[in-house]
Amino acid sequence: MTDSTPQDLSPREEHERNSKLLGGYTAFVAALLVAMFAKGDAYPRAWLIISPLALSLPSLVALAMLDFTVRVMQRRKKSMYRGLAAAPGLSPSFAGIAILIGHFSIIAGILFLLLVGYWMLMLFTVAVIGHRDPRSDI
């Protein structure tokens, strides 16, 4: 690991950091999908879990590819298309995970979605404010 700040990272290093996070999440969603295929008979209405997980995978893969294209090849930090790929990639996968959690505990499934919403809002707030004012302490 290096002690560099995000401002010191090259576009390739930024992409590698993003790629590890996104690749890990994509692998988790794919593993959960395979597990649901294998044990789907044990869960009533397993298709409610399998469908959103399966629908999210193409968008998660597209997000990783777009991130490389935008950050490394085009050397841009922003892209509307990454957001357009993230929404159909992350939202259905969060819903599928929440439904699976809800199979065991409805309260935990609801709390999972509330926490995901809260942290997405916090991350977005920090990213937007931090992008506009690098000296902000938020």
How is this structure best described in words?
With 138 residues, this protein is mainly alpha-helical. The chain has one domain (6-132). 78% of the residues lie in helices and 0% in strands. The protein is built from four helices and no strands. The longest helix is centred in the first third of the chain and has 29 residues, at 11-39. The radius of gyration is 17 Å and the shape is globular. The two termini are 25 Å apart. The mean pLDDT is 86.
What's the helix and strand layout?
Layout: H1 11-39, H2 47-73, H3 80-104, H4 106-132
Helix pairs in contact: 1-2, 2-3, 3-4
| Largest beta-sheet characterization | none
- Helix/strand structural class: mainly alpha
Point out poorly predicted stretches: none
SS element count, helices = 4
Termini, distance in Å?
A: 25 Å
Assign an overall shape: globular
Number of domains: 1
Share of residues in helices? over 70%
Secondary-structure element pattern, one letter each: HHHH
Q: Output mean pLDDT.
A: 86
* Beta-strand residue percentage: under 5%
Kindly provide the radius of gyration, computed on alpha-carbon positions and rounded to a whole number of angstroms.
17 Å
Tell how many strands the DSSP assignment holds: 0
Task: For this entry, give a set of tags.
138 residues, mainly alpha, globular
Summarize the structure.
This protein has 138 residues and is mainly alpha-helical. It has helices spanning 11-39, 47-73, 80-104, 106-132.
